[in-house]
Amino acid sequence: MRTIYCVLLVLFSLSACSEITKNKDAPSIIDAQIDEQIDEQAETNNTTENLSIPDNRFSSTYQILIFGNSHIVGLDTLIGQLMRTANPDAHIKVVNGGGGFLDNKSSLEHRTSLIASENWTHLILQGQKYSQSGTHKYSTTATELWVATAKEQKITPILFPEHPQKGNREEGRRVHQIHSEIAKRQKTCVAPVGLTWDKAIIIEPQLKLHNRDGNHASLIGKLLTAYVFYESITSEPADLLPYIAEIDVEETVQQALKQYASEIILLNPPCVFD
Where does the secretion signal sit in this chain (predicted)? Predict the structure, then answer.
């Protein structure tokens, strides 16, 4: 744990002056140099093993921590509702740890303390930077180090590839591929969020999955994502969950969302346990 923290501290120090702009498609030459510097420094210092993914699917206690930015707001509540409905006798705790992008220097100490504070079973990681147009490749080192940190502590890491923005037919699959490449370098689960959204959009384009900004998820979109994480965490089919009246989404819509999640997960298993 100490080794990984030191590597994280070094790489975040290097990235402190990196871009934090909204325009991720126009990185400066300095940004590209910093990304290269981060990877070189991490390669020199990172002595962590590529451990197997801890299997916490069948626990009687689920303690789930989520790191990320505004895309994870409200997701903790929905995942908790789904899991408590499926297993009312289990102890369920889902915490939004926030922190912004995964290479965010300002939240490093808080996140590190938070991981060490409890016996978490799962860590959901959202906030890997990516180019919306695919023209620039961002460093994935911070994400890989968080994955390694989780596995060292017997926590199941699950990557959260973001859903596509409204009208973008390529983004969901491209972002999923970025996270799948990370999993090849550092074993981790990859929740097929974007792929599930793609299916729902193709079959039912009238579903209002996005908020008005066309970027963040509506309640329906968040519920679809929550179904993906429910099945990714437990390996229990989301489409077998009952209708939950407390969630303000029509029963027919809930049923359709559950089916999309389970169908995509069947074709794209999130976790491969050794």
Answer: 1-18
